[in-house]
Amino acid sequence: MDLTWTKGVLQYLSPEMRLLLSLKCPQLLPIDRSTPLRIHTFHIDPLQLQFNKTTFKLGIIRHFHHATERNLDSEGVQHDVDLFGLEKQSPEFDLTSGEYLIVNVAPKNTEMKSRIDSLNVAQMSKRIREIQGVPGKEAELMDLKNKILPFELKEEGEYSLIPYTHYLKLTVTTGNSKYTERVDYCKSIQDGMKYLTWKLLEGRGLSVGTLKMHAEGFYRIPESLSIHTNHLDVHLKHTDSLNSIFPLLADSSFPLHSVTVYQEAELHNPIVQSSQMIVVAPRAETLQLDRLNHHRVHIRWRSIQEDKVTRLVKKWVELKKGAGTMYTFVVHDDVDIASVMEEIAAMRGAKTDSGEEDNYLPRQVTLPISTSSKLCVYWAEEAEGEQWTLFLHIQDV
Length: 397
Fold this sequence. Notes:
Mean pLDDT: 88
Low-confidence stretches: none
Distance between the termini: 62 Å
Largest sheet: 16 strands, mixed
Protein name: F-box C protein
Structural class: alpha/beta
Number of strands: 18
InterPro entries: DUF3557 (IPR021942)
Strand content: 25-35%
């Protein structure tokens, strides 16, 4: 097959199809890896990779020896288990050459975990007694008995009576389509994920619209992976999110088009400061808007905070902010829009465009900022009345 022709075909295949081909046709890997993979959204988790709408997920499944038994957890649990199927601490692993590690793990409280397990066992035992012999509760009863069985076997130390075997399972999901593969569970789930990640990503160049990383755990990533991205949405609670991800990003990513900010300390990071736009995450509700220096900010709070918006506008007037700055807010209640617009309309020099008579929301409020600029506050309806976008846009007079 002609190399140029093959590269051309690969370039126009969906990334999901290319990744599946790379798993099934190893002979294509050298050509495939040399052809950039274009992905709209790439979500990295410690035990899961999501490329657009296709997810590669690893889990440990329990397979009962008797066909009459129902198997639990179709996609498996995402932690290592002992012979009984109870969670155990993953074995330590050594970094190998060419491996980049991001550790985003909170300290484990084993005593608390033991107490929670004991409480769950007591609750399941009580429920089993309640529904034993009750018509229509057969499926629930079976599930409860299967869930409590590992605890009972471990308490009795009955290794020989274990009626199931554990497997490491890969589940690839795209919409309603699902592909699965399982292997013997003889290595840790971390090692299994490393094998899968290297198989899919080693030596690749990715062109990614939005890169996301949020979950707790160990991120084991090949150093040979190079990611060009426009939008960065990374929140790792137990490590320095932005500096941790920096080595994976290609130089061509900078300056980023946007970075999602989760806490005020991130505003001082050079990656954030150099980005063209920042996105304020719903959880970053304590962030003070009047401390932001960016010209383009998108705020995704759960509810709009009138006092912070008013303080921001007053600061713009005080500083005689120039044209070009625009802040947008995702709003889930049009009453919030009305409240903000009323606050700004009450400021000196503000003018209101009432809009249509049957709409109680003003169409626009205009406030002079300086002799050369004005603030225009307006809104747009999204999602058929379930969501709105509120704009604070400083324009030339």
